[in-house]
Amino acid sequence: MPAAAPATPVTDRLAEQARLLLRDGRAEEALPMLDRLRHLGAPAAAALRAEAMLQLHRLEEAEAAADAALLEAEDASLLRLRARIRLARGRHAGAVDDAAAAVMAAPEDRPARLLLGSALLETGRHDEAIWFLGEAWRAEPGNHALQLRLGQAFLRAGRYEAASELFLHCETAAPWTAGVSALRAQAALLAGDAEAAAGLARAALARGVVDGAVHSVLAHALVSLGRLEEAGPHFAAAARLAPDNPYIAHLAAAAAGTATDRAPAGYVITLFDGYAAHFEQSLLGLGYRVPGLIRRAVERLRPRSMQEGLGPVLDLGCGTGLVGAALSDLLRGPLVGIDLSRRMLEQAATKGIYTELRQADLTEALPAEEGGYALITAADVFCYFGLLQEPLTLCRQRLAPGGLLLFSLEQAAPGETWRLGPEGRYRHAAGHVTACAAACGLEVLECRPEALRRNGESSAPGLLVAAWAAKPQAANPRAARH
């Protein structure tokens, strides 16, 4: 990029035209002007290009342009711009740094303080986010979008009563504010009152609110109440109103009984990013047993080579690190965690037990791995796959000779092989799992029926499967392991 040249009447005119186009959201039309400004070395070229690339969702180029603009002049507006880009890229810690620097550079800059609150919220620093967002709303009490954002911060912090009060106030003052009805119903659902959530959602629909999120909350509330047949049409309506939302599309398919090979990555990310802050508290409250079951399976089945310690270990779908924690005192080698959810990985990192944590889809991450693992675990991961051949084959390829694979599944009803359940997870039959494992070059050591957790008044029936990458010379796998 050429060094910035002094502004001229020509570059000033081009820059102003580009700004007007960008203000109207017409970034594609602004590109020829931006290319000309860059060629002329105009001082505004990099910042305008960063804004255009952000609008076009070409985020890597946007951040590179913002970096270049900040090298020329570091001011609050450029720091805000790069913070917005980093937020869009999921680089939330960097966004916090930029937004905080923007606030320090211009303490009275309200957009910077609002942006800092939003960035803090994305990093899970809820109390700080609430302070900045609350300050922004108090400065503009008539700004219902700000009020809604503050309510969302309380919602993420688990302060449902405060969130409900804000949403009620907003809905009363401005009932057609986009999203407020759904958020008010969601606050009730998250607080554990599914009946109230369903009532609020139905009331919004009766008022004529057309919002896929309202249908979605109503469907989730009905599922919580065990009224699955009533939930289906609302998942379907939500999917029609939000056709590009993979989370809703998957739940609509599940409610309709439409078989798909696996849950979309977007569904898993949305589910667990939203669940991360309260994941362990919720699961432990349900008597979640899988990490302990995996620990005991390791103690029963590990070969002589692992008696002195485990490693290397790959924890697929590691989530917040519950399996890693269950095995931590047995480790004598690297522990690598892979998960689709960035927020779950952030929770896992706080445990300080993983050698490496990576955000990736396992079907993309495993082919790129090198070497072999002595142990691969997958706690409640394959329940998001209908067809197991691909993940099992990839695990087989990444196991060292004699390596052990441990995974849990939800158990299918008698007479089924596998099916997508109405809650969005797949269920598998023991015989089907064993046949799939054999076809993928694995030998099943155990396929044990186990209760995975509580499910209402009963338990969730599941399977704990142990398979190994058999060594050619080992005729008896159990003998080889003791």
Total number of helices = 24
Q: Outline the low-pLDDT stretches.
A: 473-480
The largest β sheet comes out as:
9 strands, mixed
Q: Whole-number radius of gyration?
A: 26 Å
Beta percentage is 5-15%
Helix content: 55-70%
- The general outline is globular
Q: Give the class from helix and strand content and strand pairing.
A: alpha/beta
Mean pLDDT: 90
Please report the total strand number as a whole number.
Answer: 9
Distance between the first and last residues' Cα: 65 Å
Would you spell out the secondary-structure blueprint of this structure?
Elements: H1 9-23, H2 27-40, H3 45-55, H4 59-72, H5 76-89, H6 92-105, H7 110-122, H8 126-139, H9 144-156, H10 160-173, H11 180-190, H12 194-206, H13 212-224, H14 228-241, H15 246-256, H16 265-275, H17 279-285, H18 290-301, E1 313-316, H19 322-327, E2 335-339, H20 342-349, E3 356-359, H21 362-368, E4 373-378, H22 389-398, E5 399-411, E6 418-420, E7 426-428, H23 430-439, E8 443-455, E9 458-468, H24 477-480
Parallel strand pairs: 1-2, 1-4, 2-3, 4-5, 5-7
Antiparallel strand pairs: 5-9, 6-7, 8-9
